[in-house]
Specification:
nine-stranded antiparallel sheet, 877 residues
Length: 877
């Protein structure tokens, strides 16, 4: 009972401490929000006004935040509950019936497990509690109690916010009371306590659980030791990388210390996700609207400009894997019992089992609202990748590892720590008294892979050490106690055994693999031999089993060539990954495209991305247009790249006229380059439009000094030209013309309006030539012999044409222009005067000459085509 109480209390206490560290972020956020709101002009007065008029609100307190963060830290889930009075939240579009948040196990959860282990070890060792079945049952009880206690805290201290005004009120409660919360607390505390009870029995010669775990790890053998070293080496490496990444992200996003205070909730999830990303795994995202999308080493650079850093992590992962394999090689040289191919499946299977659990415990993020949901985790298939890496470690240790170690004796100092340390005799005796069957399991495996039966060696079979500086341990028999286990003696004062001292030492290379046991009254058949520790020496074993022999030139050449080939393949793989994520990535294409536009190399930009316009419309997409001062964009850069099913959405930013502009590109995969790399093609070029209202009198426009006509426009209707251009600044005016002129209007593609408002004016030449053209038309009219010349502005109305003949017209006063409308291409004049002579019939049928004059004005239209003016005169009204 005391041991269970210590395990439960220390575990929950440690979890609370780490939850408190993470809670500081939320406290800082509340304080920052309050200070920020208080700094808004008039906010204090508004808050005072609302308070004086019955509006009140409440927020979460210290304990609510603390235990909610603790719930998240152990991997529990939160659910939102809302209530209202006087109105319905659903009428406001708020559906809180399915709001939930789930985080992976964080440092509060890790602290819960370690604290439970610490308490269990501390008292289980003192009271000599057996692991089986006392420790197992007690661990399950600790797990149940831990889950119940956390549920009680979550129920008492949910995060609540609310407000009220008059008869209206509303509140929201975020509670951690859920089945997942109980299960996660149960699993963590039960696993921790179980580890504490186990270490109390199998490594009871330590003062605390941390040193016990350290000693047990160095005494472990076979695939267990491989897994322990893999977790430790990978864990330390990616823990450091995760901290560096957290600091970098905090600095980049200006989070300061707040980002580091999130470490209790981000770890160990962040290091584990880094491991997945850096070892050909990934991170899988899914939402209710989109299918699962997995980020890997090969597409991460399209999402972030810092994706290349993960390739450095991959190289570090390879080095760590190689180091683990060499440590296993050194261990096999001193402990060849597990150095057979028949054992190589164990570590991969165990690694796969670990990652199947870790994907849900340590990397699973999820959130849901109504019918929408989002989740993030390591991909389900990564456990297979983890198993492959574990098998590669085994293969390396079984093949070229021994030869490499023998050929490079200087490496021994950095891998000797991978060898097995000998278990002290008092620990062996204690474990044997707790578990009489300890070390009695039969096996048919030997280091060479042949079938044999290994028995506990006696003193007469003690082997000579392979290393002269390391003495061999004595061997004897294991006593079989008839009484229950006694408390574990301290390592500094071991209790002398009642029989001949025993050390389960493995025979050294020259020792036989099987020797009869001379223990009186007991035969230990099939006991797995334990190795002699090489600790304390940095010398290479001379002829340990499994060690490589000196290489003959042919073998050395073969190994060298194989190493070069393998190294070349690794380098090529890394180069391929780097090129695939940089030079041949969607981001690289987008960056080249933006740079070409910013540099005014529009022709090059057209080659990178098809503008998708007619040939005539390419006139303003040329380098000539970009030569004007300050015409192009500046400082282009990529903000983000999101790729889904071969389609990349690239968000970009550039500056134009001193303002930042956000834009986007769509890039699709289109075949491959060099048969290896994906070919990215921009499907939505970065084109803009400028619109110019063009009068009929205008034949061409000048845009940044380039003349364009109606055929260069995307569309031309109602006197409006729409021109396709790249983002930039454009000076628009009338093109070269002798008849019309205008000022220069600046149009920018990032302005509120992309329309050019031109003020067009007629030139003196237009007025002069238009007057001449009108007078010429009048002269043509004067040649008519009709009383009302057709198409002319003058004439007479006759009641009987039979009484008049021989009409002759002349212009006595030519009219002057009074108005020219360039928008519609019309004109009007002041009055002119036309004289007409004719003959009129008398009553006696004789003809008499007459003359008369008429005043008229001229209205008409004109047009300019190919630099020539044409005029049309309206008929007389």
């Amino acid at each position: 009972m005391k041991t269970m109480g210590a395990s439960l209390g220390i575990g929950l206490g440690a979890s609370v401490v780490f939850a408190l560290l993470a809670s500081i972020v939320f406290f800082m956020g509340n304080a920052a929000a309050s200070n920020g709101l208080a700094g808004i002009p008039g906010f204090s007065d508004t808050a005072s006004f609302l308070g004086n008029n019955g509006v009140s609100g409440s927020g979460p307190n210290f304990f609510q935040i603390l235990f909610t963060v603790m719930t998240l830290g152990v991997g529990g889930s939160l659910n939102l509950k809302t209530s209202s009075q006087g109105f319905s939240l659903s009428n406001l579009g708020i559906d809180a019936s399915h709001v939930s948040v789930t985080l992976p196990v964080g440092l509060p959860g890790v602290a819960l497990a370690i604290g439970a282990a610490f308490g269990a070890y501390m008292l289980a060792r003192r009271f000599a509690l057996r692991f089986k079945w006392t420790g197992v049952i007690s661990s399950l009880i600790v797990g149940v109690l831990s889950g119940l206690v956390l549920l009680v805290f979550a129920a008492i201290f949910p995060v609540t916010v609310g407000g009220s005004y008059s008869d209206y009120s509303a509140s929201a409660s975020l509670s951690g009371v859920s089945f997942r919360t109980f299960c996660m607390a149960f699993l963590l505390s039960a696993a921790g306590a179980l580890a504490g009870y186990a270490l109390a029995q199998y490594a009871g010669d330590s003062g605390n659980v941390f040193s016990a775990a350290w000693r047990w790890a160095h005494r472990a053998r076979g695939f267990v030791r491989t897994l322990v070293e893999s977790f430790a080496i990978y864990g330390v490496l990616f823990l450091v990388l995760g901290l560096v990444a957290t600091i970098a992200m905090s600095a980049a996003n200006h989070l300061g210390a707040g980002g580091l205070l999130l470490v209790p909730l981000l770890f160990p999830a962040l290091p584990l996700m880094l491991i997945s990303l850096s070892s050909f795994g990934g991170i899988a995202f899914s939402t209710s609207s989109y299918s699962v999308h997995t980020i890997t080493l090969f597409n991460v650079s399209s999402l972030s400009q810092y994706g290349w850093i993960l390739w450095i992590c991959f190289v570090l992962f390879l080095l760590a894997t190689f180091y683990i394999a060499l440590r296993e090689t050194a261990r096999n040289m001193y402990d060849p019992y597990y150095a057979g191919w028949q054992h190589t499946w164990k570590a991969p299977v165990a690694a796969m089992a670990f990652w199947l659990a870790a994907e849900f415990l340590f990397t699973y993020f999820a959130a849901g609202y109504a019918s929408s949901s989002m989740s993030m985790t390591a991909p389900m298939w990564y456990f297979l990748v983890a198993g492959i890496w574990a098998f590669l470690i085994e293969v390396a240790a079984m093949t070229f590892g021994p030869t490499l170690v023998a050929s490079l004796p200087g490496m021994w100092r950095i891998i000797v720590g991978g060898t097995v340390q000998q278990t002290p005799q008092n620990v062996v005796d204690y474990v044997k008294s707790c578990d009489p069957s300890y070390g009695m399991k039969k096996t048919s495996a030997t280091a060479s892979g042949t079938t044999a039966t290994a028995t506990m060696p006696t003193a007469s079979a003690a082997a000579q050490p392979a290393n002269p500086t390391t003495p061999a341990a004595p061997a004897a028999s294991v006593p079989q106690p008839a009484t229950p286990a006694a408390p574990m003696p301290a390592p500094t004062a071991p209790t002398a055994p009642t029989a001949t001292p025993v050390s389960q030492a493995v025979p050294q290379p020259v020792a036989p693999t099987s020797m009869p046991n001379t223990t009186t009254g007991n035969t230990a058949t099939g006991a797995v031999p334990l190795p002699q520790s090489p600790a304390g020496t940095a010398s290479m074993p001379v002829a340990a089993p499994g060690a490589g022999q000196p290489l003959d030139p042919k073998t050395k050449k073969t190994i060298l060539i194989s190493g070069i080939v393998i190294g070349a393949l690794i380098v090529l793989g890394i180069v391929y990954g780097v090129l695939n994520s940089t030079v041949f990535s969607a981001k690289s294409v987008a960056q080249s495209y933006l740079t070409a536009i910013a540099d005014g190399k529009y022709d090059k930009a057209n080659g990178i991305a098809d503008p998708q316009v007619d040939k005539d419309q390419l006139k303003l997409l040329s380098d000539t247009v970009a030569k004007a001062d300050n015409a192009t964009i500046a400082n282009p850069h990529i903000d983000s790249v999101k790729t889904v099913e071969g389609v990349a959405k690239v968000n970009v930013t550039y500056s134009l006229n001193g303002k930042n502009v956000n834009d986007s590109l769509t890039i699709n995969k289109d075949g491959s380059k060099f048969l290896l790399f994906p070919n990215w093609k921009i499907s939505s070029p970065l084109l803009k439009t400028i619109t110019v209202s063009v009068p009929n009198a205008v034949e061409s426009l000048s845009v940044n000094g380039v003349d364009v006509t109606a055929k260069n426009a995307e569309k031309s209707d109602s006197g409006t030209w729409t021109l396709r251009v790249y983002p930039g600044s454009y000076k628009v005016s009338i093109g070269k013309s002798g008849y019309v002129t205008s000022g220069i209007t600046m149009v920018r593609t990032n302005a509120d309006s992309d329309a050019a408002d031109l003020k067009i004016m007629p030139t003196a030449k237009l007025k002069e030539d238009l007057s001449k053209a009108v007078n010429a038309k009048l002269d043509e009219c004067a040649k008519s012999t009709d009383y009302a010349p057709e198409g002319c502005p003058f004439g007479f109305d006759l009641y009987d044409e039979d009484y008049y003949r021989n009409f002759a017209w002349s212009i006595s006063v030519y009219p002057k222009l009074s108005d020219i409308d360039l928008d519609y291409g019309t004109f009007s004049t002041r009055q002119g005067k036309a004289k007409c002579t004719y003959e009129e019939k008398n009553f006696d049928d004789s003809w008499e000459s007459q003359d008369d004059s008429t005043h008229f004005t001229v209205n008409g239209s004109f047009s300019i085509r190919d630099g020539k003016l044409s005029v049309t005169i309206d008929d007389e009204d």
